[in-house]
Design goal:
Keywords: Coiled coil, Metal-binding. Belongs to the methylmalonyl-CoA epimerase family. GO terms for molecular function: metal ion binding; methylmalonyl-CoA epimerase activity. By secondary structure, this protein is of the alpha+beta class. The chain has one domain: 2,3-Dihydroxybiphenyl 1,2-Dioxygenase, domain 1, CATH 3.10.180. It has an 8-stranded mixed beta sheet. A hairpin with a 3-residue loop joins strand 6 and strand 7. The longest helix is centred in the first third of the chain and has 11 residues. It starts with a strand and ends with a strand. The chain binds (S)-Methylmalonyl-Coenzyme A (MC0) and cobalt (II) ion (CO). The site of cobalt (II) ion has 6 residues, from strand 1 and strand 5.
Length: 133
């Protein structure tokens, strides 16, 4: 079902500020920023080997990243797994009675198809499923 870790989503107050550590200190080159309006975020990726770190900055005070930082502070917000056929995986999870946040694929950064599984169904980790070419 799961091919690999596609990315690890990290909530930050400011991508510009976070860049100083991820790029400046660790030397990982950051991609251009993209706004994903539906998720109320601005994102930038840091490719590392087969996977990436996704920096997420909120664009709205009521978005999921703003709420996460308010209650838990900056840090890892989700883990995204790469899948081949997202619709089929969602059907399978639904059949298993897993609580989904998204029953249908939504738009993800870079044109991916994404869907989130509720952290209550995973014992505390917000899981994103992600299909991309
Ligand atoms: C651009 C895209 C991409 O990759 O392409 C992205 O990644 S967008 C990434 C940003 N977008 C998203 O995260 C969209 C999906 N997320 C959501 O729908 C929401 O953030 C939820 C995960 C449902 C949480 O919403 P909200 O905080 O309003 O719910 P809530 O207050 O009822 O919290 C329900 C319970 O989940 C816990 N909880 C909340 N956020 C959590 C997180 N990130 N990881 C683990 N647990 C989490 C709370 O502590 C609470 O537990 P207790 O009850 O025990 O206190
Ligand atoms: Co993500």
């Amino acid at each position: 079902m799961v091919e690999k870790i596609d990315h690890i989503g990290v909530a930050v107050k400011s991508i510009a500020e976070a860049r100083k550590f991820w790029e400046g200190v660790l030397g990982i080159k950051m991609t251009d920023e993209e706004v994903v309006a539906e998720q109320k975020v601005k994102v930038a990726f840091l490719p590392v080997g087969e996977s990436e770190v996704e920096l997420l900055e909120s664009t709205e005070p009521d978005g999921p990243i703003a709420k996460f930082i308010e209650t838990k502070g900056e840090g890892i917000q989700h883990v995204a797994f790469r899948v081949k056929n997202l619709e089929a995986v969602l059907e399978e999870l639904k059949a298993k009675g897993v609580r989904l946040i998204d029953e249908k694929p939504r738009y993800g950064a870079g044109g991916a198809k994404i869907a989130f599984v509720h952290p209550k169904a995973t014992l505390g980790t917000l899981v994103e499923l992600c299909e991309r070419d």
